[in-house]
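Title: Prediction job returns without error message
Component: structure pipeline
Severity: low
Priority: P3
Assignee: unassigned

Description:
Job completed but the reporter wants confirmation the result is attached to the right record. Sequence as submitted:
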Amino acid sequence: MKKLFTLLLVISVGIFLMSTNAFSEGHTVAMVVKNLGNPFMDACGKGAEEALNELGDTLIFQGPATPTVEGQIEIIENLIAQKVDAICVTANDFDALVPVLKKAMDNGIKVVSFDSAVNAGGRIVHVNQADSEQIGKLQVQAVAEMINFEGEIAILSAGATMTNQNTWIEFMKKELEDPKYDKMELVTIVYGDDLRDKSYNEAMGLFKSYPNLKGIISPTTVGISATAKAIFDAGLVGKIQLTGLGLPSEMAEWIHNDTCTAMFLWNPIDLGYLAANVAGLLCHGDITGSEGEKFTGGKMGEYTIVKAADGGTEVLLGPPFRFDKSNIDDWKDVY
């Protein structure tokens, strides 16, 4: 009986130690988004939570009230003090976050940028939603078809310092150099800072400043929905064409009433999932972020880490998807 008791005690202690070790192996991953209250960012957070739950890790979801660099720096400083294991950040500025993110990495924190990249010196790896050149080209091609390749167009972007926006716009400009766009003119680029009211007012300003405007590209989910409302309110449906990057849940109404005949996006839930999955795998030691590494991104499948245009490394989520009347209802309740 004494031997049996001793055996049971050893087994019990072993089980306790195993459960304790399993719990202690869980990591804390912080996702720092451009700003809170942004539906696209909220969807990314939803995906991140799912990915980390599968890995046995914990998510902290934070962002400034408005999309500012200063707000993100303050949050990251606090996360360093909290000794989180990893930070996933979509940057409000390509360079300005580098010093604080280097500080994080010096403290042993794994840093992953996603959506809007941070300079390669301030991260281990970037999770890109799609090929940037393809994103830029598709939007120009779409608006060109809408206006029959003739007339003035404008771009209503998010923030002037946001890496992804600026990269896409540069590829848009490059695409417009093609002779087939000779009768089109990019008259201006304005910035709504991913704020609905400001984006709406910027769109209204475009209508007044450019009475011959034929099309608007808004490569931001906040901007495109605000611009759609502005076009509708101004009675310009059918007179000014609109495309860009939008959430199906926010754009279904505008697509059905012809304010926006087509727009593009990837699944932000999947983007957040993959970004958090990569951060978790870094924490667990399954990957290092080096070029050529292959890994399984949970439910997303197989991926390879490749060299990024900025000299760092990145993972590409996949190609953007076109939404129009033929498929918007299939997606409007998803995200």
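Comment from assignee: result matches the submitted record. The radius of gyration is 23 Å.
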